[in-house]
Amino acid sequence: MKLSGNTILITGGGSGIGRALAHRFHDLGNTVIVAGRTKAKLDDTIAGRDRMHAMTFDAGDAGSIEDLTARVLDEHPALNVLMNNAGIMRYEDLLADPVDVEIAEATIATNLLGPIRLTSALLPHLRAQPRASVVNVTSGLAFVPWTKTAAYNATKAGLHSWTVALRHKLRQTSVDVIEIAPPAVQTELTPGQSTREGYMPLEAFIDETMANFEADPDARENLVKNVHFLRFAEAEGRFYETVEQLNEALGG
Ligand SMILES: NC(=O)c1ccc[n+]([C@@H]2O[C@H](COP(=O)([O-])OP(=O)(O)OC[C@H]3O[C@@H](n4cnc5c(N)ncnc54)[C@H](OP(=O)(O)O)[C@@H]3O)[C@@H](O)[C@H]2O)c1
Question: What is the CATH number that goes with domain 7-250?
Answer without folding.
Answer: 3.40.50.720
